[in-house]
Amino acid sequence: MSVMRSRNSETTSKLPLTARQREALEFIRRCVRKRGYEPTVREIGDQMGINSPNGVVGHLVALERKGFIHREANLSRSIMLVERGEKTATGLLLLAHVTGKKIVDNPQLDERIDLTEKIQLNGEDFFLLRVQDDLLAQYAISQGDLLLVRRARTAARDETVILRTPENDFLLATCEYDPLLAKTFIKTLQSNQKQLENSCSAIYGVLVAVVRTF
User: Fold this and answer.
1) Residue 11 has pLDDT above 50, yes or no
2) Distance between CA atoms of 81 and 151, rounded to whole angstroms?
3) pLDDT value for 199
4) What whole-number distance in Å separates Cα of residue 206 and Cα of residue 197?
């Protein structure tokens, strides 16, 4: 298949983004692409699972300091993306790599892969992870595979979820129904079978497909 990488002419900031700063920036960009204007602090907090506005503002201050956004005081929608010569984005964002069962953010912030020969899917609600070793072979995931992920903070029954711990560990889990509590829970596939609420900051997204590119 033909795999095309697309980069815009933006040069990345000399100061690297943290995973949460990157998440905030991508949400801001998605809002602009979808509806033409930036989100509010509350909308960013809802997306990222942050209850305190101050927690969101801390990420925005960092993004402004690193040159990705500009904020105007005393405006209800004070967040503005800094123009960096971006071209129209094509393909799916390659958000991170999975190596050593860790999620490592892609330092190329806007690297995209066109998978239209494999799947008829595009848009900012989906992203890709590239697997760089064979440590996930027990899940029939091999080195070089691309994981197609839907952005989500919750999952439906029987969906497979990717979890990202504060230590950037990569975990697979399933969403299961508990008839006694009449609730769905996230249950990890590891031996300890840890059970989590079906809405938590560790949910990185829902695994849609494993794409083999060779």
Assistant:
1) no
2) 21
3) 78
4) 15
